[in-house]
Amino acid sequence: MTGILRAVIFDVDGTLVDSVDLHAHAWVEAIRHFGFHADFDEVRSQIGKGGDQLMPVFVPEKDLKRVKDDMDHFRHDLFARKYMPKVKGFRRVRGLFQHLHAEGLRIALASSAKGDELEHYKQAADIEDLVDVETSSDDADRSKPYPDIFQAALDRLGLPAEEVVVVGDSPWDAKAASRAGLPVLGVLCGGFPEQDLRKAGCVEIYRDPEDLQRRFAASLIGRHSPKTLGQPGRPSARGDRRMGA
Questions:
Q1: What is the sign, positive or negative, of the torsion defined by CA atoms of 94, 98, 101, 105?
Q2: What is the pTM of this model?
């Protein structure tokens, strides 16, 4: 990358909030409830995909059309009732977002989560007033590793891919972003191995959002931010009204 960045698109599950294991448990229960085999580690390796891409891994094609809608509803209701209240934001997410705005960058969320889940995640990470653009599973025909959700975020930002970078925790984020022509920074807090993230296309790796903020100046984002390159940033859709994050 040689030009200036205007925005950062974040994945949410496993990147901003600690939810990957919780999603895996919910999917294991849902898949088993409908009579199919599901091993926790195998299911966990697929988290980051939406249900449309995850279910075919565990449900035979001959059964998929019959059960997919009911299984998706069952999983969503189970997660909302049993697991979503346990989701916590990672450290310093709010501070990182404030830093990005101070650098003149806009912030978008691109998640395979459903709309109500995304609202809860923003509260858990304390970033409701710091997000300029967001997309959820409702905005994409196909979930990651297809690029649809990132393309929807680009469309809402009104920016070309060369002015945007993605931060995500899973190989599925990296593959989807790369297919949309976007560079990807990986974070390890979602529990995916560093070698898998690099193999999928991540150009830099950080421990978590706090680590990215700590090493911001040397990061791809820091080196190409409007402030660093002496360019005016685009105003955020929502100003930050809180201090001390």
A1: negative
A2: 0.92
